[in-house]
Design a protein that fits this description.
single chain; about 425 residues; mainly alpha; Serine Threonine Protein Phosphatase 5, Tetratricopeptide repeat; 3 strands; about 75% helix; TPR repeat; TPR_rpt; repeat
Protein backbone atom coordinates (compact mmCIF):
# COMPACT_ATOMS: atom_id res chain seq x y z
CA UNK A 1 0.00 0.00 0.00
CA UNK A 2 2.81 2.42 0.84
CA UNK A 3 4.43 1.68 -2.50
CA UNK A 4 1.23 2.56 -4.32
CA UNK A 5 0.85 5.85 -2.42
CA UNK A 6 4.42 6.79 -3.40
CA UNK A 7 3.73 5.97 -7.04
CA UNK A 8 0.61 8.12 -7.02
CA UNK A 9 2.60 10.97 -5.43
CA UNK A 10 5.27 10.78 -8.09
CA UNK A 11 2.60 10.76 -10.77
CA UNK A 12 1.03 13.95 -9.34
CA UNK A 13 4.41 15.71 -9.42
CA UNK A 14 4.88 14.68 -13.03
CA UNK A 15 1.42 15.99 -13.93
CA UNK A 16 2.13 19.32 -12.21
CA UNK A 17 5.49 19.65 -13.97
CA UNK A 18 3.87 18.96 -17.35
CA UNK A 19 1.12 21.49 -16.65
CA UNK A 20 3.71 24.01 -15.50
CA UNK A 21 5.77 23.58 -18.66
CA UNK A 22 2.63 23.99 -20.76
CA UNK A 23 1.66 27.23 -19.00
CA UNK A 24 5.16 28.69 -19.44
CA UNK A 25 5.23 27.58 -23.10
CA UNK A 26 1.75 29.03 -23.70
CA UNK A 27 2.82 32.28 -22.02
CA UNK A 28 5.65 32.55 -24.54
CA UNK A 29 3.18 32.02 -27.39
CA UNK A 30 0.87 34.69 -25.94
CA UNK A 31 3.77 37.14 -25.81
CA UNK A 32 4.59 36.42 -29.46
CA UNK A 33 0.98 37.36 -30.29
CA UNK A 34 1.16 40.51 -28.17
CA UNK A 35 -1.35 39.11 -25.64
CA UNK A 36 0.54 40.33 -22.59
CA UNK A 37 -2.40 40.14 -20.14
CA UNK A 38 -2.96 36.48 -21.07
CA UNK A 39 0.75 35.80 -20.59
CA UNK A 40 0.67 37.38 -17.12
CA UNK A 41 -2.26 35.14 -16.11
CA UNK A 42 -0.52 31.98 -17.33
CA UNK A 43 2.74 32.91 -15.61
CA UNK A 44 0.94 33.65 -12.34
CA UNK A 45 -0.56 30.15 -12.47
CA UNK A 46 2.86 28.59 -13.11
CA UNK A 47 4.71 30.62 -10.48
CA UNK A 48 3.25 28.89 -7.44
CA UNK A 49 5.12 25.64 -8.28
CA UNK A 50 8.25 27.26 -9.71
CA UNK A 51 10.41 26.09 -6.82
CA UNK A 52 10.28 22.50 -8.06
CA UNK A 53 11.13 23.41 -11.68
CA UNK A 54 14.55 22.90 -13.27
CA UNK A 55 16.78 25.87 -14.10
CA UNK A 56 15.97 25.83 -17.82
CA UNK A 57 12.26 26.18 -17.12
CA UNK A 58 12.93 28.89 -14.52
CA UNK A 59 15.07 30.75 -17.02
CA UNK A 60 12.28 30.71 -19.61
CA UNK A 61 9.74 31.69 -16.96
CA UNK A 62 11.64 34.82 -15.91
CA UNK A 63 12.39 35.89 -19.50
CA UNK A 64 8.70 35.58 -20.37
CA UNK A 65 7.65 37.33 -17.17
CA UNK A 66 9.94 40.26 -17.96
CA UNK A 67 8.60 40.44 -21.51
CA UNK A 68 4.97 40.19 -20.36
CA UNK A 69 5.29 43.03 -17.85
CA UNK A 70 7.34 45.18 -20.25
CA UNK A 71 4.84 44.64 -23.08
CA UNK A 72 5.32 47.14 -25.90
CA UNK A 73 7.02 49.53 -23.50
CA UNK A 74 4.40 52.23 -24.09
CA UNK A 75 2.22 53.48 -21.26
CA UNK A 76 3.56 50.88 -18.83
CA UNK A 77 3.39 51.72 -15.11
CA UNK A 78 6.57 52.06 -13.06
CA UNK A 79 5.39 49.12 -10.94
CA UNK A 80 5.15 46.83 -13.98
CA UNK A 81 8.44 48.06 -15.38
CA UNK A 82 10.22 47.37 -12.10
CA UNK A 83 8.58 43.92 -11.98
CA UNK A 84 9.92 43.32 -15.50
CA UNK A 85 13.41 44.45 -14.50
CA UNK A 86 13.49 42.09 -11.50
CA UNK A 87 12.41 39.21 -13.74
CA UNK A 88 15.13 39.96 -16.30
CA UNK A 89 17.72 40.11 -13.51
CA UNK A 90 16.59 36.66 -12.34
CA UNK A 91 16.95 35.38 -15.91
CA UNK A 92 20.47 36.80 -16.00
CA UNK A 93 21.35 35.00 -12.75
CA UNK A 94 20.13 31.77 -14.30
CA UNK A 95 22.42 32.21 -17.30
CA UNK A 96 20.41 33.98 -20.02
CA UNK A 97 22.51 37.14 -20.15
CA UNK A 98 21.54 38.02 -23.73
CA UNK A 99 17.76 38.07 -23.18
CA UNK A 100 18.24 39.82 -19.83
CA UNK A 101 20.39 42.57 -21.33
CA UNK A 102 17.91 43.12 -24.15
CA UNK A 103 14.99 43.18 -21.72
CA UNK A 104 16.64 45.56 -19.24
CA UNK A 105 17.52 47.88 -22.12
CA UNK A 106 13.85 47.86 -23.13
CA UNK A 107 12.79 48.68 -19.56
CA UNK A 108 15.25 51.57 -19.38
CA UNK A 109 14.18 52.96 -22.74
CA UNK A 110 10.53 52.76 -21.70
CA UNK A 111 11.22 54.56 -18.41
CA UNK A 112 13.21 57.35 -20.04
CA UNK A 113 10.79 57.91 -22.92
CA UNK A 114 7.88 57.95 -20.48
CA UNK A 115 9.79 60.44 -18.31
CA UNK A 116 10.35 62.67 -21.34
CA UNK A 117 6.63 62.53 -22.13
CA UNK A 118 5.81 63.44 -18.52
CA UNK A 119 8.28 66.30 -18.57
CA UNK A 120 6.78 67.66 -21.79
CA UNK A 121 3.33 67.40 -20.17
CA UNK A 122 4.70 69.28 -17.11
CA UNK A 123 4.20 66.23 -14.89
CA UNK A 124 7.57 66.79 -13.30
CA UNK A 125 7.00 64.62 -10.22
CA UNK A 126 6.29 61.57 -12.39
CA UNK A 127 9.26 62.36 -14.64
CA UNK A 128 11.55 62.54 -11.59
CA UNK A 129 10.28 59.19 -10.28
CA UNK A 130 10.85 57.44 -13.62
CA UNK A 131 14.27 58.95 -14.19
CA UNK A 132 15.34 57.86 -10.72
CA UNK A 133 14.08 54.35 -11.49
CA UNK A 134 16.15 54.47 -14.68
CA UNK A 135 19.18 55.40 -12.60
CA UNK A 136 18.54 52.53 -10.19
CA UNK A 137 18.56 50.11 -13.12
CA UNK A 138 21.73 51.69 -14.54
CA UNK A 139 23.76 53.15 -11.63
CA UNK A 140 26.58 54.10 -14.00
CA UNK A 141 24.23 56.44 -15.89
CA UNK A 142 24.36 59.23 -13.29
CA UNK A 143 22.88 61.62 -15.86
CA UNK A 144 19.50 60.02 -15.11
CA UNK A 145 19.94 60.93 -11.43
CA UNK A 146 20.87 64.50 -12.38
CA UNK A 147 17.73 64.92 -14.50
CA UNK A 148 15.63 63.26 -11.78
CA UNK A 149 16.86 65.92 -9.34
CA UNK A 150 16.14 68.73 -11.81
CA UNK A 151 12.58 67.51 -12.35
CA UNK A 152 12.03 67.15 -8.60
CA UNK A 153 13.08 70.80 -8.16
CA UNK A 154 10.66 71.91 -10.86
CA UNK A 155 7.94 69.88 -9.14
CA UNK A 156 8.84 71.70 -5.89
CA UNK A 157 9.55 68.35 -4.24
CA UNK A 158 12.56 69.81 -2.48
CA UNK A 159 13.18 66.95 -0.05
CA UNK A 160 13.47 64.44 -2.90
CA UNK A 161 15.58 66.82 -4.98
CA UNK A 162 17.93 67.41 -2.05
CA UNK A 163 18.39 63.64 -1.59
CA UNK A 164 19.23 63.22 -5.28
CA UNK A 165 21.64 66.16 -5.32
CA UNK A 166 23.41 64.91 -2.20
CA UNK A 167 23.75 61.51 -3.91
CA UNK A 168 25.31 63.21 -6.93
CA UNK A 169 27.80 65.02 -4.70
CA UNK A 170 28.76 61.79 -2.93
CA UNK A 171 29.30 60.15 -6.32
CA UNK A 172 31.55 63.04 -7.38
CA UNK A 173 29.29 63.79 -10.33
CA UNK A 174 30.31 66.84 -12.37
CA UNK A 175 28.50 66.28 -15.66
CA UNK A 176 31.68 67.02 -17.58
CA UNK A 177 31.72 65.01 -20.78
CA UNK A 178 33.01 65.18 -24.31
CA UNK A 179 30.48 64.97 -27.13
CA UNK A 180 31.71 63.75 -30.50
CA UNK A 181 29.84 65.68 -33.15
CA UNK A 182 29.77 65.85 -36.94
CA UNK A 183 27.37 67.07 -39.62
CA UNK A 184 25.49 64.53 -41.71
CA UNK A 185 26.16 65.47 -45.35
CA UNK A 186 22.85 64.00 -46.51
CA UNK A 187 20.64 65.90 -44.04
CA UNK A 188 22.83 68.83 -43.03
CA UNK A 189 21.95 68.02 -39.40
CA UNK A 190 24.44 67.96 -36.54
CA UNK A 191 24.63 64.53 -34.86
CA UNK A 192 26.30 63.18 -31.71
CA UNK A 193 27.80 59.70 -31.63
CA UNK A 194 30.70 57.72 -30.19
CA UNK A 195 34.19 58.89 -31.13
CA UNK A 196 35.02 55.74 -33.08
CA UNK A 197 31.74 55.87 -35.01
CA UNK A 198 32.12 59.59 -35.72
CA UNK A 199 35.69 59.18 -36.96
CA UNK A 200 34.67 56.26 -39.15
CA UNK A 201 31.77 58.21 -40.70
CA UNK A 202 33.99 61.22 -41.39
CA UNK A 203 36.64 58.98 -42.97
CA UNK A 204 33.94 57.42 -45.19
CA UNK A 205 32.95 60.91 -46.35
CA UNK A 206 29.38 60.63 -45.05
CA UNK A 207 29.92 63.23 -42.30
CA UNK A 208 31.86 66.50 -42.22
CA UNK A 209 33.11 69.13 -39.75
CA UNK A 210 33.96 66.83 -36.83
CA UNK A 211 34.08 68.56 -33.46
CA UNK A 212 34.89 67.47 -29.90
CA UNK A 213 32.59 69.52 -27.66
CA UNK A 214 33.25 69.51 -23.91
CA UNK A 215 30.15 69.91 -21.71
CA UNK A 216 31.12 72.15 -18.76
CA UNK A 217 30.89 71.10 -15.12
CA UNK A 218 27.50 71.08 -13.42
CA UNK A 219 29.06 71.05 -9.94
CA UNK A 220 28.31 74.74 -9.41
CA UNK A 221 24.70 74.32 -10.51
CA UNK A 222 24.23 71.34 -8.18
CA UNK A 223 25.66 73.26 -5.24
CA UNK A 224 23.53 76.27 -6.12
CA UNK A 225 20.38 74.16 -6.13
CA UNK A 226 21.29 72.54 -2.82
CA UNK A 227 21.81 75.97 -1.29
CA UNK A 228 18.59 77.34 -2.76
CA UNK A 229 16.64 74.33 -1.47
CA UNK A 230 18.02 74.97 2.01
CA UNK A 231 16.97 78.61 1.71
CA UNK A 232 13.51 77.54 0.55
CA UNK A 233 13.33 75.40 3.69
CA UNK A 234 14.46 78.30 5.86
CA UNK A 235 17.84 76.66 6.58
CA UNK A 236 20.12 79.58 5.73
CA UNK A 237 23.03 78.32 7.84
CA UNK A 238 23.06 74.99 5.98
CA UNK A 239 22.91 76.88 2.68
CA UNK A 240 26.00 78.93 3.53
CA UNK A 241 27.87 75.83 4.73
CA UNK A 242 27.01 73.94 1.53
CA UNK A 243 28.38 76.74 -0.59
CA UNK A 244 31.53 77.21 1.47
CA UNK A 245 32.27 73.49 1.19
CA UNK A 246 31.77 73.65 -2.58
CA UNK A 247 34.11 76.64 -2.90
CA UNK A 248 36.78 74.83 -0.89
CA UNK A 249 36.45 71.73 -3.07
CA UNK A 250 36.31 73.69 -6.36
CA UNK A 251 38.49 76.80 -5.89
CA UNK A 252 38.80 77.37 -9.64
CA UNK A 253 35.06 77.17 -10.39
CA UNK A 254 34.09 80.75 -11.19
CA UNK A 255 30.40 79.84 -11.39
CA UNK A 256 30.33 79.29 -7.62
CA UNK A 257 30.80 83.02 -7.03
CA UNK A 258 27.65 83.66 -9.06
CA UNK A 259 25.93 80.91 -7.07
CA UNK A 260 26.96 82.63 -3.85
CA UNK A 261 25.59 85.94 -5.10
CA UNK A 262 22.31 84.27 -6.09
CA UNK A 263 22.10 82.67 -2.67
CA UNK A 264 22.41 85.98 -0.85
CA UNK A 265 19.90 87.54 -3.24
CA UNK A 266 17.44 84.77 -2.42
CA UNK A 267 18.05 85.40 1.28
CA UNK A 268 17.19 89.06 0.78
CA UNK A 269 20.73 90.18 1.64
CA UNK A 270 20.98 92.59 -1.29
CA UNK A 271 24.09 94.40 0.01
CA UNK A 272 26.04 91.14 0.13
CA UNK A 273 24.69 90.20 -3.30
CA UNK A 274 25.83 93.51 -4.75
CA UNK A 275 29.28 93.17 -3.17
CA UNK A 276 29.87 89.75 -4.73
CA UNK A 277 28.39 90.76 -8.08
CA UNK A 278 30.77 93.70 -8.30
CA UNK A 279 33.66 91.27 -7.73
CA UNK A 280 32.31 89.12 -10.56
CA UNK A 281 31.99 92.14 -12.86
CA UNK A 282 35.60 93.09 -12.10
CA UNK A 283 36.65 89.67 -13.42
CA UNK A 284 34.38 89.90 -16.49
CA UNK A 285 33.97 93.63 -17.24
CA UNK A 286 32.43 93.18 -20.71
CA UNK A 287 29.54 90.94 -19.61
CA UNK A 288 26.37 92.94 -20.18
CA UNK A 289 24.16 90.45 -18.32
CA UNK A 290 26.14 90.97 -15.10
CA UNK A 291 25.60 94.73 -15.26
CA UNK A 292 21.92 94.15 -15.95
CA UNK A 293 21.58 91.94 -12.86
CA UNK A 294 23.28 94.60 -10.76
CA UNK A 295 20.83 97.11 -12.15
CA UNK A 296 17.89 94.98 -11.02
CA UNK A 297 19.33 94.74 -7.52
CA UNK A 298 20.10 98.44 -7.27
CA UNK A 299 16.54 99.29 -8.35
CA UNK A 300 15.07 96.91 -5.77
CA UNK A 301 17.24 98.57 -3.12
CA UNK A 302 15.80 101.97 -4.08
CA UNK A 303 18.97 103.20 -5.79
CA UNK A 304 17.39 104.44 -9.03
CA UNK A 305 20.45 106.35 -10.22
CA UNK A 306 22.71 103.35 -9.56
CA UNK A 307 20.29 101.11 -11.41
CA UNK A 308 20.29 103.41 -14.44
CA UNK A 309 24.08 103.49 -14.42
CA UNK A 310 24.29 99.67 -14.42
CA UNK A 311 21.67 99.36 -17.17
CA UNK A 312 23.58 101.86 -19.32
CA UNK A 313 26.71 99.74 -18.83
CA UNK A 314 24.74 96.67 -19.86
CA UNK A 315 23.67 98.41 -23.08
CA UNK A 316 27.29 99.35 -23.86
CA UNK A 317 28.08 95.64 -24.11
CA UNK A 318 24.68 94.33 -25.26
CA UNK A 319 22.96 97.10 -27.24
CA UNK A 320 20.11 94.76 -28.20
CA UNK A 321 19.03 94.28 -24.57
CA UNK A 322 15.41 95.46 -24.63
CA UNK A 323 14.80 94.78 -20.94
CA UNK A 324 17.63 97.12 -19.96
CA UNK A 325 15.97 100.02 -21.86
CA UNK A 326 12.57 99.25 -20.35
CA UNK A 327 14.10 99.13 -16.88
CA UNK A 328 15.91 102.44 -17.41
CA UNK A 329 12.58 104.01 -18.31
CA UNK A 330 11.02 102.43 -15.21
CA UNK A 331 13.86 103.73 -12.99
CA UNK A 332 13.48 107.24 -14.41
CA UNK A 333 9.70 107.19 -14.01
CA UNK A 334 10.09 105.99 -10.42
CA UNK A 335 11.25 109.54 -9.60
CA UNK A 336 7.77 110.78 -10.50
CA UNK A 337 6.28 109.43 -7.26
CA UNK A 338 8.17 111.89 -5.03
CA UNK A 339 7.21 114.81 -7.24
CA UNK A 340 3.52 113.86 -7.18
CA UNK A 341 3.66 113.34 -3.42
CA UNK A 342 5.04 116.86 -2.95
CA UNK A 343 2.48 118.34 -5.35
CA UNK A 344 -0.32 116.81 -3.30
CA UNK A 345 0.86 118.59 -0.12
CA UNK A 346 0.57 122.08 -1.64
CA UNK A 347 -2.26 124.47 -0.90
CA UNK A 348 -3.83 127.27 -2.95
CA UNK A 349 -1.55 130.16 -1.98
CA UNK A 350 0.34 132.10 -4.61
CA UNK A 351 3.63 130.59 -3.43
CA UNK A 352 2.18 127.09 -3.46
CA UNK A 353 0.73 127.62 -6.94
CA UNK A 354 4.13 128.72 -8.18
CA UNK A 355 5.76 125.72 -6.55
CA UNK A 356 3.11 123.45 -8.08
CA UNK A 357 3.88 124.74 -11.56
CA UNK A 358 7.60 124.17 -11.00
CA UNK A 359 6.97 120.58 -9.89
CA UNK A 360 4.64 120.00 -12.85
CA UNK A 361 7.50 121.08 -15.11
CA UNK A 362 9.90 118.67 -13.36
CA UNK A 363 7.33 115.91 -13.78
CA UNK A 364 7.21 116.51 -17.53
CA UNK A 365 11.02 116.51 -17.60
CA UNK A 366 10.93 113.02 -16.07
CA UNK A 367 8.55 111.92 -18.85
CA UNK A 368 10.75 113.45 -21.56
CA UNK A 369 13.84 111.76 -20.12
CA UNK A 370 12.20 108.32 -20.12
CA UNK A 371 10.55 108.62 -23.54
CA UNK A 372 13.62 108.07 -25.80
CA UNK A 373 14.28 104.67 -24.22
CA UNK A 374 10.70 103.58 -24.86
CA UNK A 375 10.80 104.87 -28.42
CA UNK A 376 13.97 102.88 -29.10
CA UNK A 377 12.32 99.75 -27.72
CA UNK A 378 9.33 100.27 -30.05
CA UNK A 379 11.68 100.76 -33.01
CA UNK A 380 13.47 97.49 -32.25
CA UNK A 381 10.41 95.57 -31.07
CA UNK A 382 7.20 96.91 -32.58
CA UNK A 383 5.07 94.41 -30.65
CA UNK A 384 6.31 95.30 -27.17
CA UNK A 385 3.03 96.10 -25.42
CA UNK A 386 4.68 97.38 -22.26
CA UNK A 387 6.64 100.01 -24.17
CA UNK A 388 3.60 100.96 -26.27
CA UNK A 389 1.32 101.37 -23.25
CA UNK A 390 3.84 103.41 -21.21
CA UNK A 391 4.80 105.65 -24.13
CA UNK A 392 1.12 106.26 -24.94
CA UNK A 393 0.43 107.46 -21.37
CA UNK A 394 3.46 109.74 -21.48
CA UNK A 395 2.35 111.31 -24.79
CA UNK A 396 -1.06 112.05 -23.25
CA UNK A 397 0.60 113.65 -20.22
CA UNK A 398 2.80 115.78 -22.49
CA UNK A 399 -0.20 116.85 -24.58
CA UNK A 400 0.98 115.08 -27.73
CA UNK A 401 -2.46 113.59 -28.40
CA UNK A 402 -1.76 112.68 -32.03
CA UNK A 403 1.04 110.28 -31.11
CA UNK A 404 -0.87 109.02 -28.10
CA UNK A 405 -3.98 108.27 -30.17
CA UNK A 406 -1.89 106.42 -32.75
CA UNK A 407 -0.40 104.21 -30.04
CA UNK A 408 -3.83 103.70 -28.50
CA UNK A 409 -5.15 102.41 -31.84
CA UNK A 410 -2.14 100.14 -32.23
CA UNK A 411 -2.53 98.82 -28.69
CA UNK A 412 -6.26 98.16 -29.13
CA UNK A 413 -5.62 96.28 -32.39
CA UNK A 414 -2.98 94.06 -30.80
CA UNK A 415 -5.03 93.33 -27.68
CA UNK A 416 -8.08 92.37 -29.77
CA UNK A 417 -6.19 89.81 -31.88
Amino acid sequence: MKKNILSIGLSLISIVAIAQKKEVRDAGKAIDKGSYAEAKTLLTQAESMLGDANDNLKEDFYVFKGQAYLGTGEGVSIKDLMTASEAFKKAEELGNAEAAAQGLSGVTNSLIQSAINDQNAEKYDLAAEKLYAGYQLNPKDTLYLYFAASNAVTAKDYETALTYYENLKELGYTGIETQYIAINKATGEEETMSKSQRDLMVKAGEYIQPEDRVIPSKAGEITKNIALIYIEQGKEEEAVKALEAAKAANPDDASLMQTEADMYYKMGKKDKYKEIMEQIVAQDPTNGTLYYNLGVTAFEMGDNDGAISYYEKALEHKPEMTEARLNIAAAILANEAKIVEEMNTLGMSKADTKKYDELAGKRKDVYRKALPYLETVMQNDADNLEAIRTAMNIYYQLGDNEKADALQAKLTAKENK
